[in-house]
Write a structure and sequence with these properties.
MetI-like fold, 2 domains, two-stranded antiparallel sheet, 66% helix, flat, disordered N terminus, MetI-like_sf, cell membrane, membrane, sugar transport
Length: 459
């Protein structure tokens, strides 16, 4: 429950919308209808006119296009594109029909603009109430030039935060809401709903959760493998990286820098290059199988099914992920080991602790304490690890021709195939939502466990 504690305002202010509505004068109350009116009355003419122009621009936008955009969300269009024979040109022409994708996009944008307008409206109301209170108290009310100067002093955070907030609103929130809405439509190549589609409610979710359907059975299979992959890919890297870092950093190891260089050298090569090389080497006629044939370890007409057998393919991608991921873990844990106070080990030796006790009571807790955020990021990254799977196995092998996913496909690679190759955009949107939910639950669970560990006396 600690994650959902009520936020306490560290800098309370009396200039709130509630106080403006309850205690504000006539000019402030009129600002609810005419934005900026209260500022103009209280001497902030330029500021008030800017607010008024924003309101006028919003009203014009809604009157010309906005209301129509929002109204279009009800049906997402109904006029189909028609094929008409032109007798004069002796060719078929096509009449213009509704494009549901644009109707949905414009409608969502109009709603978000309305939400943004409500936020601005609240700001103008508080600004008018503040100007009124300052004037009644006989205090100075800033003019427009003085307000601009405050952007370089006490309101500097507003100046710096406005551009990134605008970009987040346009390039993150708008596409995210658009994608979520798409999950409740039949926008896909199925039944030719690429140009004109409509709302279907929760039908896509029902299809995906129905284990008896092809998509449903594929989803549960891919989901199970995604979780298994994320677990083994995360902790195999962590464990092997821990072992290597402990071996290299032990006092008896000579030429520590040389050994670190050997393992970290692979980081200098772009990962996609390494993955493509390994993919080529593990093909039936690749270097590995050819070498094994020449050594007589396998028959001349045989080859190891690295990507042809489901079990072999899954084990192969996990092992290669360890190969490309352990050097990064080694770097992380080497820094952690070098920062553990030597006094702790001296005290443990004085108390008679052996190597295992020292590791379990000092080294491991310290490493987990420092690297928990790294583990969370790595786990969530492996759930969405598109590069390793797509570049290495391509999701293969495909054992069921009716399925849209291979045996090594993760949710993210399956999502790519559904949208790019199959054009099942609605199902892809549902999978995107489910991936986000899984990531959020996993991150929250890991965070709460690590927090409980620290509160219960962890290192």
């Amino acid at each position: 429950m600690g994650l959902f504690k009520k936020r306490v305002n560290e800098f309370p202010t009396p200039y709130t919308c509630a106080n403006a509505i309850k205690e504000g004068g006539l000019s402030t109350k009129l600002s609810m209808i005419l934005m900026g009116f209260g500022n103009i009355v209280n001497g902030q003419i330029v500021k008030g006119l800017i607010y008024l122009l924003i309101e006028i621009a919003y009203i014009v936008f809604m009157a010309v296009n906005g209301i129509g955009f929002i109204a279009g969300l009800r049906t997402l269009g109904s006029v189909e594109q028609q094929e008409v024979w032109d007798e004069v040109k002796q060719i078929y022409t096509y009449t213009k029909g509704d494009q549901s994708i644009l109707i949905l996009l414009y409608g969502v944008a109009a709603i978000l603009i309305t939400v943004l307008m409500i936020v601005i409206w609240r700001g103008t109301l508080k600004s008018a109430y503040k100007a009124e209170c300052l004037r009644k108290e006989g205090k100075h009310v800033n003019n427009f030039v003085e307000d601009l100067k405050t952007l370089l002093n006490e309101n500097l955070y507003r100046l710096f935060m406005t551009p990134p907030t605008a970009f987040v609103f346009i390039f993150t929130i708008l596409p995210l809401v658009f994608m979520i809405c798409m999950a409740f439509t039949n926008y896909s190549r199925i039944d030719n709903h690429l140009m004109l589609f409509n709302w279907v409610g929760l039908d896509n979710f029902k299809t995906l959760f129905d284990s008896k359907s092809i998509l449903g059975s594929t989803f549960w299979s891919v989901l199970a493998w995604t979780v298994i992959w994320a677990f083994f890919a995360t902790f195999s890297n962590y464990i092997f990286g821990m072992i290597l870092s402990l071996l290299i950093n032990r006092k008896g190891t000579k030429a520590k820098g040389f050994w670190r260089f050997c393992f970290v050298l692979s980081c200098a090569v772009p990962m996609f290059v390494s993955l493509l090389i390994m993919r080529t080497m593990l093909q039936p006629e690749g270097a590995v199988n050819v070498l094994l044939r020449n050594l007589g370890l396998i028959a001349n007409d045989a080859s190891l099914p690295f990507f042809a057998d489901p079990t072999w393919a899954r084990v192969t991608v996990i092992i290669i992920n360890v190969w490309v991921g352990v050097p990064y873990t080694l770097l992380q844990l080497t820094g952690v080991l070098q920062n553990i106070p030597e006094d702790l080990y001296e005290a443990a030796r004085v108390d008679g602790a052996n190597a295992i006790q020292t590791f379990t009571k000092i080294t491991l807790p310290y490493m987990l304490y420092v690297t928990t955020p790294y583990l969370i990021v790595t786990f969530t990254g492996n759930i969405n690890n598109f590069n390793v799977i797509y570049l290495l196995s391509g999701g293969d092998p495909v054992t069921d021709l009716s399925s849209t996913a291979g045996k090594t496909d993760l949710l993210v690679t399956w999502l790519y195939k559904l949208t790019i190759d199959k054009q099942y955009y609605n199902i892809g949107a549902v999978i995107g939502i489910m991936t986000f939910v899984i990531l959020a639950i996993g991150a929250l669970f890991t965070y709460r466990n690590s927090k409980s560990y620290k509160e219960e006396g962890g290192f």
